[in-house]
Amino acid sequence: MASGAEGIVLLDHGSGGRATHQLLREVFFEAFERSPELLDAALLEDLQGPLAFTTDSFVVSPLFFPGGDIGSLAVHGTANDLAMVGAEPLFLSCGFILEEGFSLRDLRKVVRSMAEAARALGIHIVCGDTKVVPRGKGDGLYLNTAGLGRLLRSPAPHPSRIRPGDRVLVSGPVGDHGLAVLAAREGLPLKGLRSDSAPVWPLVKPLLEVLGEDLHALRDPTRGGLATTINELAEESGTLIYLDEAAIPVRPEVRGGAEILGLDPLYLACEGRFVAVVSASRAAEALDLLRGLAGGEGAALIGEVREAASRPLVVLRTRVGGERILPVLTGEPLPRIC
Q: Where is the PurM-like C-terminal domain positioned along the sequence (predicted)?
C-alpha cells in the first residue's frame, strides 16, 4: 500500500480491488473496532423510537487546527446536531473523499481522532465509504457523515415552543472555533486561540432530564455564529429576542483577535457550544446546572424572549447602553471552517 516513507493515497485505493481492501483493513477497521465485513449496509439492532436522523459534510481548511481536526470535528458536529433536537447520538456513518497523493500518515491520524471522539461519546461508527479523486481535484480530504439518535423525551425541544418571557442561555464563550481555524489557515500570529470543538450531549442530557418540558429550544451556533443562530430562533418562533452584549461570554483572546481583524465575535462559529431557551421560572436552575458540569463552567444567561411588535427581530443592548438590531450574517467572511 505504501508509496514513499509513509505512503500516499493512490487512485488504486478507490478501485474497489486489492488496494481498497487493504486500505480498509489497515486504516479503518482497526481504528473503528469493526469486523472486516464488506456488507453493503450496516445491520442495526431493533431500535425503539422516536428517532432523529441527520447528515453533515466537512471541508474544513486546514485539516488540523488548534483544538481538533476534521475527524473529531465530524463526530462532534454530527453528534451535536442530534443533541439539538434532544436525541442521544447512537450510530454514525462516514464517507471519505480522498485526493490522490494525500498522506496515509495524515489519514491514519484523522481516522484515529474520529474513532477516539466516537468512543468518548459511546457512538458506534457502523458503516462508511471511501472514494479517491485525481490529484488536484479534492483538496486532500473531505468527510461526509450521517448520524442516528434516539429522542430522550417528548415533546422534543423545538423553536415552536418558544414563548415571550423565556430566557436565553449559552453554554460557554463564543467565537473560538471560527477564529482558531482562520488563524491556523492564514498563519496569523494570534496567541491563545483554540477551537471549542467538543460534544455537547453531556451537557444537554442533564438539562433534558432536569428541566423536562421547560427546556423549550436548543440550537448550536455554528456557521454564522451566535447572532445568526438567535435570528433563526426569533424567525422560527415569531418573537423578538433581546440580548445583553455585556452578558455574552467571549474569551479575551478571541475578542482581541477579532478586533485586530475587524470581525465581530458574535458572527464567529462555535463547534462545542449551544443556545438553550428555557422558561423564566427555571432559568436560574438551568444556569446553575450547566455551570456545575464539565464544559459548562462558562455558561451565561444572555437574553430574554419578548413579543414581536411587527416582525421577528433580535435586539442587542450594547456595552455602552444603546440598542441596535442584530441582523443575520451577510456573505461568507470565513469559508471552510467546518
A: 163-308
CATH 3.40.30.20 fits 159-325, yes or no: no
CB atoms within 10 A of CB 209: 12
C-alpha cell at 216: 423549550
> Per-residue pLDDT for the chain (338 aa), expressed as one digit of tens each?
544 446 999 888 987 788 888 888 888 888 887 666 666 788 887 788 899 999 999 999 999 999 999 999 999 999 999 999 999 999 999 999 999 999 999 999 999 999 999 999 999 999 999 999 999 998 999 999 999 999 998 899 999 999 999 999 999 999 999 999 999 999 999 999 999 999 999 999 999 999 999 999 999 999 999 999 999 999 999 999 999 999 999 999 999 999 999 999 999 999 999 999 999 999 999 999 999 999 999 999 999 999 998 999 999 999 999 999 999 988 777 889 99
Q: Is the peptide bond before 62 cis (omega within 30 degrees of 0)?
A: yes
Q: Which three cell numbers stand for residue 282?
A: 427555571
Measured N-to-C along each axis, helices 176-186 and 252-261 cross at an angle, to the nearest 10 degrees, of 50
Q: Which three cell numbers stand for residue 45?
A: 439492532
Which three cell numbers, joined as nine digits, stand for 61?
A: 481548511
Domains 11-40+47-151 and 159-325 share a fold: no
Distance CA 134, CA 12 (A): 11
Q: Measure the CA–CA gap between 244 and 246, rounded to whole angstroms.
A: 6
Q: Dump strand ranges (E) for 119-271.
A: 124-133, 141-151, 167-170, 215-219, 239-244
**CA R_g for the chain:** 21
Strands 87-99 and 124-133 turn out to be parallel
Q: Say if domain 11-40+47-151 classifies as CATH 3.40.1000.20.
A: no
Q: What is the CA 25 to chain-centroid distance, rounded?
A: 29
Does the pTM exceed 0.85?
yes
Domains of the chain, by residue range, sit at: 11-40+47-151, 159-325
Q: Which residue has the cell 465530524?
A: 74
Q: Hey, what's the cell of 77?
A: 458536529
Contact 290, 226 (CB under 8 A): no
